[in-house]
User: What shape does this take?
Amino acid sequence: MKQALLTIDDAPSAFFKDKLNYLTRNNLQAIIFIKGASADANGIEGLIEAVKRGHILGNHTYYHK
Assistant: This one.
C-alpha cells in the first residue's frame, strides 16, 4: 500500500479553521508545522482543535524570511 503524508506549513493562519474543516470533511489527517509568530498573531485555539481532531503538530521555528 502506498502512502502519502500531507503537511501544512506556517500555521496557524487567518484561514486555519477553514483548512481544518476541509481536512475533516475529506477525512484527511495532516502534520501541521507551527510558526511561532503565526501562533502569536492568530492564537492557539485552532492548534488545540487540530490536536483534538487527530492532527500532528510540529515546530517550524518562530519566524523565517
In short: Helices lie at 16-25, 36-42, 45-52. The chain has a mean pLDDT of 94. The longest strand covers residues 7-11.
